[in-house]
Design goal:
- By secondary structure, the chain is mainly alpha-helical.
- It has one domain: Farnesyl Diphosphate Synthase (Orthogonal Bundle).
- About 70% of the residues lie in helices and about 0% in strands.
- The protein has 15 helices and two strands.
- A two-stranded antiparallel ribbon has the order 1-2.
- The longest helix is centred in the last third of the chain and has 28 residues, at about 205-230.
- It starts with a helix and ends with a helix.
């Protein structure tokens, strides 16, 4: 990574941790155990890729960063809730996330379930109570975007397909369909929410950003599948080899390791091509695309 990009990432991550800490309920406010567990699940972990994408898109669109911080927090809370629920025994049954015990292990299953529920609702509370756009209809569209990305036509639907696909041999289009929803939908929404906090982009430009998000979201998942095979648990911060152990279809199991790497590189190139017209204003998005595809690759 270039030094200036590293500095930008570090500054954004540090500032965003403060933002999240301020937006989450304090641990000393009743019900204390639930609020403590919510903070445990969200803070002090993760690369914050989705908020970083929102910040980059917001900068491209000339947005007020205070608005983008709230939008990015809403997306990150949805992501964190999904991880809490995914790790539970009824889903992936994992004991490690972001290098520490998963929420249901640290607390208990009932608390973890409520943590996910509360984080999801807090995300939409933030979108409703903070002014993120100058026009009310535009802000309502932002709420709709995150709702669709999170629900049965987005992340939750992708997870349902994932659970139903265990032990099955999916075709490449079927695997892509699953991950466009499970992983890609929230990444796309992060970019669009960040961009919609500004006023500089037209419908065609927003469509190109959505296309960028779709491609880089797929690339993100392909790289995840490769790393799940190659990296160790300490590097990943979660249990390595879990997908193979659970007989889940992945890009590696379908294509093989080298072909999966090639696919990630192709998606990366296509994603960068969608940003051509934006020139230097899309530099942070390009750098984040590089970071997503080239991380420990």
């Amino acid at each position: 990574m270039r030094a200036d990009f590293q500095g930008w990432v570090a500054a954004r991550q540090s500032r965003f941790e403060e933002v999240l800490g301020g937006l989450l309920p304090r641990a000393d406010v009743a019900p204390q155990r639930l609020h403590e567990a919510m903070r445990y699940a969200v803070l002090d972990g993760g690369k914050r890729v989705r908020p970083l994408l929102a910040f980059a898109a917001g900068e491209l669109a000339g947005a007020d960063m205070a608005r983008v911080e709230v939008a990015g927090a809403a997306v990150e809370l949805i992501h964190a809730y999904s991880l809490v629920h995914d790790d539970m025994p009824c889903m992936d049954d994992d004991v490690l996330r972001r290098g520490k015990p998963t929420c249901h292990v640290q607390y208990d299953e009932a608390t973890a379930l409520l943590v996910g529920d509360a984080l999801q609702t807090l995300a939409f509370q933030l979108l409703a109570e903070h002014r993120l756009a100058d026009d009310a209809a535009k802000q309502l569209e932002m709420v709709r975007l995150l709702a669709v990305a999170s629900g049965s036509r987005g992340m939750a639907g992708g997870q349902a397909i994932d659970l139903a696909s265990v032990g099955k041999a999916l075709t490449l289009p079927e695997l892509e369909f699953m991950h466009i929803h499970k992983t890609g939908a929230l990444i796309r929404s992060a970019i669009l929410l960040g961009a919609r906090c500004g006023n500089h982009l037209n419908a065609e430009q927003l469509e190109k950003l959505d296309r960028f998000g779709k491609l880089i979201g797929l690339a993100f998942q392909v790289v995840d599948d490769v790393l799940d095979c190659e990296a160790d648990t300490a590097t990943l911060g979660k249990t390595a080899g879990k997908d193979a152990d659970n007989d889940k279809p992945t890009y590696v199991s379908l294509l093989g390791l080298e072909a999966a790497r090639d696919m990630a590189q192709r998606l990366h190139r296509e994603a960068l091509e969608t940003l051509t017209e934006f020139g230097d204003s899309a530099q942070r998005l390009r750098e984040l695309a590089d970071f997503i595809v080239l991380r420990k690759f």
